[in-house]
Amino acid sequence: MTLWVMGDVHGWLERAQGVLVRAGIVDGAGHWRAGDNTLAFLGDLVDRGPDGIGVIDWIMRLETEADAAGGKVVAVLGNHDVLIMSAARWPDRFLSSWHRNGGNDDDMARLSAEHRLWLERRPAMALEHEHLLMHADALLYEEYGWTIDAVNDRIAEVLQGEDPDGYEDLLDVFSQRDAFQDGADLAQAFMRTYGGTRIVHGHTPITKVTGQPPEDVTEPYVYADGLCVNVDQCLYRGGPGFVYRKG
After folding, report:
1. What pLDDT is attached to residue 191?
2. What is the pTM of this model?
3. For the chain, which domains are there?
4. Is 53 left (phi over 0), alpha (psi -120 to 50) or beta?
């Protein structure tokens, strides 16, 4: 069994599909061809690119196609996914922040109740093939629970609730990053809490960490003695994209 993981897509539908076509995961029309294997997207599906809603529609379709083939598609929650939902629900409070962070007015116009319901139901964390999958390289998840299920349940309560303060608190903690850069100890402790033998995340563009030009980012950034893998592929900065593979 193979696990593939794709980092932040940020509305760049054609670029993301091209990466998965080259990896043999989807066909030229973007349809599932990976059989009984697993593909995970690590959030930030929207904003900063031309077609965030197209990305959501595509992943929703892939979920169905993969399930029919005995495979699996997972999409965890990113901060930009929370931000577009908050701006849609409480524009007076969040719309200006969403625009400052790359919000696409066409995405907002096309964001349907079905899209919002799907986003609200995204897990914040997932454990697949002993890989702990999450959007942010941050400890923010500890503020919502001490098991994956507890974190996902609590964040789902926030997203499905009617309290804009809960959304704002979640967006505030999602600003955290770089938690595991100082070595393996914190990563090991985090996985003792939530499980897994490797943390895989997006959120922090690899180019910010390594100083590489985006066009040179063609593979994951592995650090913390091999315990952490950054897959933020810098698509919105012009990176060619890649997909992480295990198995």
Report:
1. 98
2. 0.97
3. 3-246 (3.60.21.10)
4. alpha
